[in-house]
Queue: 2 jobs
Job 1
Amino acid sequence: MVARAYTVAFEGVEARIAEVQCALATGLPAFAVVGLPDKAVSEARDRVRAALNALSIALPSKRITVNLSPADLPKEGSHFDLPIALALLAAIDVIPREDVEGTVALGELSLDGKLVSVIGALPAAMAAAAEDKRLVCPKACGPEAAWVTATPVIAAASLAEVLRHFTGQAPLAPAAPGEVRPGSGARDLRDVKGQERAKRALEIAAAGRHHLLMMGTPGSGKSMLAARMPGILPPLTPVEALETSMIHSLSGLLDEGGISRARPFREPHHTASMAAIVGGGRNAKPGEISLAHNGVLFLDEFPEFPRTVLETLRQPIETGEVVVARANAHVRYPCRFLLVAAANPCKCGYLTDPTRACARVPLCGEDYIGRISGPLMDRIDLRVEVPPVAYTDLDLPEGGESSATVAARVAAARDRQTARFADHPGLRVNADAEGQLLEEIAAPDAEGRDLLSRIAERFGLTARGYHRVLRVARTIADLAGSETVRKPHVAEAVSYRLTLQAGR
């Protein structure tokens, strides 16, 4: 008779239920694992055998066959150890088969029978809840998986505790969810001297999730401004926190099961590979753009990134998801991020300063910024020049608005957008609106439409650029508390669109 246990196999952020079948047959003693396992899964038989020996459980002198079903689904990772052990224990009648069949299990076994934490406990709990099964996992993964309250989560420190639980000797209480981690101390906008236009662009970008490019000489404060973006963004909603945490769970970034309500802020170095930015590798893991889902992706020294890496951002920026296609994998990851890019105007960085510029001015500026292709630049909503700050200005007292004041306006604008898109699933901010809906919510008044038409004709706005101006204007109107998009809102939106375009 075949004993069955259940676990999960990961396809992107989705966890697919996999059946672990164990059968005993007469013949020469052997232990085989079949069903398209990778090396880590194939080695599970040795870890399971050693863990059972540590518990003084002898394997029968029979041929043991473990099948991972569906057989055509790649099985990767060490989390198959525990379900294989449970299926084997059920097959030799150590634990009740009906209890094991109602369980989804994952966990790595050490040679002494202890359970080692694995990645993906949160998506696994979601899959278990969908199948109306309970989840058994290592103790370290319990606080993370327990956030899914639709299914009981049993977190055990060792295989011995799992045995005592299933046999009724010492039942384990369901795990409690981890604590919500407070956001790290965000830096204050008040620390930035001057740069009022850049601060305004930062506020608009945060309110509507509009992509932003800051360009200025070295030391003008571009990185300083970007580092203060998390301080003005509203906290993640429960739905957004769950989405983001599922990706971070697959990447092993959830510490002690804690889920943060602070929006992610990722800042990869410009030497990062395409697989690191977009996702991929041997196991098609999520990249930086997916880890920044519902948060900020900050790319400093934007033109220094390899051209191929920059061009791969075009499709994710437009669709909000990325498909990592490999010979052995075809997975889809969400990546609705806010892109904040910073760049110098040229290679030497001092294009606008005749006393410090190199001899190749202005050709060096054209070559340097030319590394950013036109189609990619067209997808950036806000472009702002960050002028240099004189050292004498650094001694001035703090001025301007604090991050808390700006964050309150951003939160109010986000609330208006949430109410606006309440009847449109999948839409959360103005940057998501398109088609007929965009025309309904962002149609400017007569003066605004006339201005936009003249600007579009004069500067040759593309259709994409035209719609992005409308989205930005809608966000500016939301910040101002206006129900309609008027001429001043359109004028401000257009000013950020043409700042760098006119000079190119």
Job 2
Amino acid sequence: MKRILSITFAIVSMLAIGQVAGAQDSGKPRVFVLTDIENEPDDAMSLVRFLVYSNQWDVEGLVATTSIHQQDKTAVWRIREIVEAYGKVRDNLALHEPGFPTEDHLRSVIREGRPDYGMRAVGEGMDSTGSQLLIEVVDRDDPRPVWVTVWGGPNVLAQALWKVRETRSAEALEAFVSKLRVYTISDQDDSGPWLRKSFPGLFYIASPGYHSGGAYHFATWSGIGGDNFHARFTGADFSLVDNPWLDENIRAKGPLGAQYPWVKYLMEGDTPSYLNLVNNGLSHPDHPNWGGWGGRYEFYTPRMTKPLLNPETRPFWSNAEDEIIGADGNWHTSNHATIWRWREAYQFDFAARMDWTIKPYDEANHPPVAKLGHSDRMTAKSEQRVNLSAEGSADPDGDDLSYEWFYYQEAGSFTVSSARTGQPLTIEDADKPNAWFTVPTNRVLRNGTIHIILAVTDNGTPKLTRYQRVIVDVTDNDDVVKIDIDKGTGYYPVNSIHRKGNLH
């Protein structure tokens, strides 16, 4: 019976997804990859994962570049090698979800940058096949922005913007820049700081700074697997990003898995640049501060620290901290935690997709469909009960589902004093399809938005999770906060809470 239900659900789902994909392909992100592949193994790892999710976006470019670690050569051959392996499994992937690009398409967008370091490859006569393709991609009559994910040095992007600035009007340059969305893995050459300074309107996500100054240790992206090397943090389950797990769940899975190298420093340091583009219901690319598998970022001007060679000149999306209970049962607060808090979910999801490369539909697991029984935006007032519903959630394989509702405090602006716990808002029946909470009144420092995350997980192998986000806008802001003090409970003007004294 389960197999019949699974097949029926799969057919219906694929037809529905196919209709959406055919009618609304414009909803897919456009992605352009710059990679210093072969400087170390992690770029090849990230490319393997990128390709098994390639039905989630339109792949507009795969460009081999240089970096501080590989200054005078590119390795475009390695991109072609991995794409060839993808071509051997693409048809099997398509049995599980529609929309995977053909090998021919991927080959058609492979290019390379100039084999030189940083700004030495930017300026008059420094065009490359990579920079030319990027200009062509951005210039296409397509309203969608282009996500440039930078795994090495960004000098291909720098040359494209230099060329546009030199050859077009100020208005045309502004229009070109407005279509770009950039995520760089730290600063792996000197063109990154130049880009941020020269194009203040450029949408930019980065943990800024240079390797020689220890930037990788502090970077958000190190949360993907830097427990024991770059970031050196505790709290996450390191076994899920270590070679034995990767051997069993990734490398053993067919010709594409065979292209996944052993970890030398950390697993997939470049993967966070595109993880928030995965359509899992959790992240929203236009709102990096909402958080997701690829981390959470806030908009500000980073202060001068030792990894930076020069002060930053303007705000951009950079490191933010989450507070989370780790696998060790202890609370941890860091920017790395904004990624590793989701580790089990994104690793199990990757393992399932690698199964898709070699298994028929009915022998693999597929993610559940998380649905809300109400709008994803609500308004509420203090002390009001807010009802939450996941009715309608289902699983394509007929698997049983479990539910978790939780408060993502850092993603919203509603602020509650939380000296005793990182979860100051209690959700009743948080493990059931229907849950509820009461908008707090005690210890409220600021009204604003409350972000509630629904996580729906199946009991398949590996178990998979999908999400929905509910944003509740608490609207009764009277410029007061209610706080408990040692003499009792009272209402006080906001400005008065900065006085000396103990808050309990």
